[in-house]
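Late entry, evening session. Most of the bench is empty. Finally got around to the prediction I had been postponing all week. Sequence below, unchanged from the version circulated by S.P.
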Amino acid sequence: MLYQKHRHVVSLFILAMVQIRNMWLVILTLIT
């Protein structure tokens, strides 16, 4: 159970990192 919860947190963290990277790409394209 603890392992599944940890895996869920890791997947959420990866999803957040991808969202932040996409946001940075949009910001860079708007700036340049």
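Two things to note before I forget:
The longest helix spans residues 2-31.
The chain has one domain: 1-31.
Will write this up properly tomorrow.
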